[in-house]
Amino acid sequence: MKKKLSKNKNLHTNNQKTKTKNLKRREEIAFWLFLSPWIIGFIFFTGGPIIASLFLSFTEYNIINPPEYSGFKNFMGLFNDSLFLKSLGVTFYYAILTIPFTIIIGLALALLLNQKIKGQAFFRTMFYAPSIISGVSVAFLWSWLLNPDFGIVNSVLDSVFGVSGPGWFTDTKTVIPSFVLMQLTSLGGTMIIFLASLQSLPQELYEATAIDGGGPLTKFFHITVPLISPVILFNIIMTIISSFQVFTQAYVITKGGPNWMSYFYVYYLFDTAFSEFKIGYASAQAWVLFTIIFCFTMLSLIVSKRYVHYEYED
Hints:
Blueprint: H1 2-56, E1 59-60, E2 68-69, H2 73-78, H3 82-113, H4 120-128, H5 135-145, H6 152-161, H7 175-184, H8 188-199, H9 203-211, H10 216-227, H11 229-243, H12 248-253, H13 265-274, H14 279-307
Antiparallel strand pairs: 1-2
Helix pairs in contact: 3-7, 3-8, 3-11, 3-13, 8-11, 11-14, 13-14
């Protein structure tokens, strides 16, 4: 009798193990089936073109004739290309202005919108909404607002303050600051990430600091900033990547002018590939851009080791 019970028990255990294995197998199959559209799309539309561009960067290819291997000729030619250096300088200038302003203003807006005030949901929506509008639409809107002849901004400056407004997108001195100003109205994504991190902070720390006599600045620099430092790092890296890839605004508003002062690097890459059809040369430009962004990202991660604090650090 005991042997029979033991045999039945073992049989039941084996059946349970088999059912568990089958369930795990079905879940694994379902996982890969749901993931397969992304994998297929990545291979054909992202991963494949990336590998192809690396191959083409070492060739001379103009779509009409087949690629011919040229070694590092494309990469060496870039550093003797005045437009390459000009577009790179313009992009760096834009990035230097955009990154700190985006992070500081995005965090400031998140702090304000984290306060319990009447109409909180409305203000959050109002500040976030511009970030989901098409880049082309935003570019057209700002080209109208900052038009030096009939734009609203210059009209207000003239009628209210008696000041003659600048040329904005038509002046070599103000064209990049104008693009930065336009970008700052679309930082809703950065703001919302900061806001989410602020709402997850433990209020007990702020209460303890208040009991000890700490003011708003003490709370901000000794509690808020250290606790959200990983989020600050994330937003910095994302802003670096986006600032080096600006294209739409210049393409719609200035066409790279005036005097090449808004001829961003990606704009030059676009012209090289789709206006001059120098696909090999454009591929080399793309990999130089990738290298620059990768280096700045790694530099940010290295520097962050001293300033970024994680919750589960040893």
